[in-house]
């Protein structure tokens, strides 16, 4: 063997091994992207398992983790978005200021394709939102049942424990997670979720990551305080070679809304259910209830469920003839009468507890 042949037999296999090693995917190769717009930033790991790992508003971290899971049909398990094949992704600066605020990513699976689109919108201060769009294409010729799960674990104001998380089911299904000076609101825009759940973390996440099929249990809450999370589920039946869309907004605001005081169960209406919840927890700190919802914190935020909370429900009654949400000024006669009833009920509750 001449020197040239000897060099080829020894060096080329080594070079091939090194090239293969360099091409093998590692955790460090995960595609992580950053978005920024005015007072808001986001960090999204597209294929490394972390998902949305950062969402800052006014320089303060607001999230622990948020991500998405899919399931075909009714048998498990659910699989995370990042387990699909990431084919392309693009960032763009649509408003021509500093930083990219728009992400578009394409994933492929055996029976469907996923287009994941995120648009971040910051502000001068206090608030920010981002819009998420999914375009889900059935690449088969037959009907496809595709389940989309959205899991969110926010840590508002960079604190693990938040005051409350709840789902409000009215015309729209809206999720809210609340801290004394911040809240995150999740509002569907295209396609309402079919199921939902609130729980203490990591219970929902554990179900999504186990080996069987899990549907969300429709627990509305409110629950808290603690390390809280929520999830939404869309059960989509997509005809062959057709695309379905899911779109929603998530918005961080600084101050809790003052337009619906007395709405204990966060369903958008101040009614007999709120009155019953106040009565059920009279004299407590609002941390437990025989009903399926908790007052956490009490409506007026003073740490005890008392006559002030009962009067707050009465003066903001909206079930029949009271003031509309967002107009807690002068008390019309029906609401004033209910306030009087609330005071009488409060006195009765106090007497009953002395017996």
Characteristic terms for this protein:
355 residues, alpha+beta, Beta-galactosidase, Chain A, domain 5, eight-stranded antiparallel sheet, five-stranded antiparallel sheet, disordered C terminus
Task: Tell me what you see in this structure.
This protein has 355 residues and is of the alpha+beta class. The chain folds into two domains: 27-253, Glycoside hydrolase, family 65, N-terminal domain (Beta-galactosidase, Chain A, domain 5), CATH 2.70.98.40; 272-354, no CATH class. The chain is built from five helices and 17 strands. It has an eight-stranded antiparallel β-sheet with strand order 7-8-9-10-17-14-13-12, with no helix packed on it. Strand 3 and strand 4 (60-61) form a beta hairpin. Helix 3 runs antiparallel to helix 4 and helix 4 (307-315) runs antiparallel to helix 5 (333-354). The chain is globular and about 60 Å long. 36% of the residues are buried.
Q: Topology, pairings included?
A:
Elements: H1 3-23, E1 32-37, E2 40-45, E3 51-57, E4 60-61, E5 63-72, E6 79-80, E7 85-92, E8 102-108, E9 112-121, E10 128-138, E11 144-154, E12 164-169, E13 173-179, E14 182-190, E15 195-200, H2 203-209, E16 228-238, E17 243-253, H3 272-280, H4 307-315, H5 333-354
Antiparallel strand pairs: 1-2, 2-3, 3-4, 5-6, 5-11, 7-8, 8-9, 9-10, 10-17, 11-16, 12-13, 13-14, 14-17, 15-16
Helix pairs in contact: 3-4, 4-5
